[in-house]
Design goal:
The complex is a heterodimer of chains A (104) and B (489). By secondary structure, chain A is mostly helical. Chain A has a domain of 39 residues: Histone, subunit A (Orthogonal Bundle). Chain A contains three helices and two strands. Chain A has a two-stranded antiparallel sheet. An eleven-stranded mixed sheet of chain B has the order 1-3-2-4-6-5-10-11-9-7-8, sandwiched between helices. Chain B has a domain of 278 residues: Amidase signature (AS) enzymes (Alpha-Beta Complex), CATH 3.90.1300.10. The longest helix of chain B has 23 residues. Helices cover 40% and strands 13% of the residues of chain B. With 489 residues, chain B is an alpha/beta fold. The chains are: A mainly alpha (104), B alpha/beta (489). Chains A and B meet through helix 1 and helix 2 of A and helix 11, helix 12, helix 13, helix 14 and helix 15 of B.
Amino acid sequence: MTKLSLAEVEHIAHLARLGLTPAEKEMFREQLSSILEYARRLQQLDTSDVPPTTSALPLSNVMRPDGVGPSLPKAEALANAPDVEADQFRVRAILPSHNAGDTG
Amino acid sequence: MDHELCFLTIHEALQRLERRDLSAVELTRAVLDQIGALDDRLHAYLRLLPEAAMAQAEAADRRRAAGEAGPLEGIPLAIKDVICTRGVPTTCGSRMLENFVPPYDATAVARLRAAGAILLGKTNTDEFTMGSSTEYSAFFTTANPWDLERVPGGSSGGSAAAVAAGMALGALGSDTGGSVRQPASLCGVVGLKPTYGRVSRYGLVAHGSSLDQIGPLTRDVEDAAILLRCIAGHDPLDSTSLDYPVPDYAAELKAVSDLRGLRVGVPREYFIEGIEPGVEQAVRAALQVLADLGAELREVSLPHTAYGIPIYYLVATAEASSNLARYDGVRYGLRVEHPDMWQTYFETRRAGFGPEVKRRIMLGTYALSAGYYDAYYLKAQQARTLLRRDFERAWQQVDVLACPTSPSVAFKMGQKMDDPLQMYLSDVFTVSLNLVGMCGISVPCGFCNGLPVGLQLMGPALGETTILRVAYAYQQATAWHIQRPGLAA
């Protein structure tokens, strides 16, 4: 069995924006390796001319008229937010700011 | 007297409510009393709504008196806590959504309310429905009413335990890989997974969007038919909901009195080594009952069955890793503050998700990541086509497929917690149906060491009427579904 490296586990955790403890990284390294090993049995199947199934339904591009309808009132849409300011979701700055202390 | 009320089926209760031989207030109080007596041992409910339920019951009695009763007027039901309820916290069994209060009802809930149903509370689930035992709920594990040291199955284990113990007349669950059928089997109740698209997913918190369906858990087949009729149908708010007429399933049940002319397929790959002998015995005996009712049994083959688990755990985790990206601490749910915005994501998701959810996000992210997409995700989607072709070939020979719902009866708490792969393998007989989008039902068919066994009947897309008819005929000929667990009897 080829085991995932610690670097691979950290890369995947980064892509998924998941904070993991060193113990969790080691646990997932073991567990994901054995689950992926099990999943490798799919390689036994010849799928060279088989199209993928992404949905069980024969539906595609379901459209509706582009009309104006009722929507959630602003207060309700914001009611579950961890932090709100001026009717908007408030988050930390994502770009470096010249104004020290500005976290808006 | 009151004790008998909480074990009424929905159709019996509706008849008595209609005759004014019972009021919604009496019925709801009896069920709430049963919850009060048992739920500190069973832990089926994450949240109870006793005051709201009694107020709804009074309103239901008033509407009935005024001649305005809906089809479920006064029937107390439980809702799995991954289905949104306006103004009532919907946690998904997760710390991430511990304080989340949906501003709208799921379409299925809105339809139940419009039909006059009473909402008793929200039932326990594995976190974001990821599990087969409720042990992955962030809050507590639900106990199986037949043996308190065993799991009720999952992820809709709270709903199944509530229905089995008389703590709801029926319930909604959700089924992504067996999460309605498997707990129904392990708790000795009926659980139906509708065809993909039959029931709107609007307001069902997403796990695997090409697999998820809401379905009813009930004490008999007629009740499943009644609830399905109420929640099924096209919904403009779910672009994958099917626009086909909804039959009166309960009336269709009684249109045939035996199973003559019906072809029941017995897939040989579902009677494999590793299945508990008592489970196989009970299911084989159930097949004989179907034959005695006039059905013709035919052995069939679904040759790609053994690939169902690896396909499922790549497709479902890939979809989940994408769906759960929304929990970023910005618009709703938990936020763990950090001076750096990017670190806020990492810390929020570290604190908000439990181990199984993290494991699946990791697995799904891996399967979708550059360099592995073709070998895992694409390969699984191609194998999914082969699985679908297995079923399509089977429908040329038979009308329904019959097999066990689960390879074992309810297992002991803790037994599979250290080995995720063992937990995944307990879904071996249920995941294929979600991957091919068809319908299935689990009905009680016996006991093994005092624990319930479920018979699974699978049907083609929109084949609900057929599987319900077969299940109904089976229940008319047997008495497994009226057995009650000792603690609730």
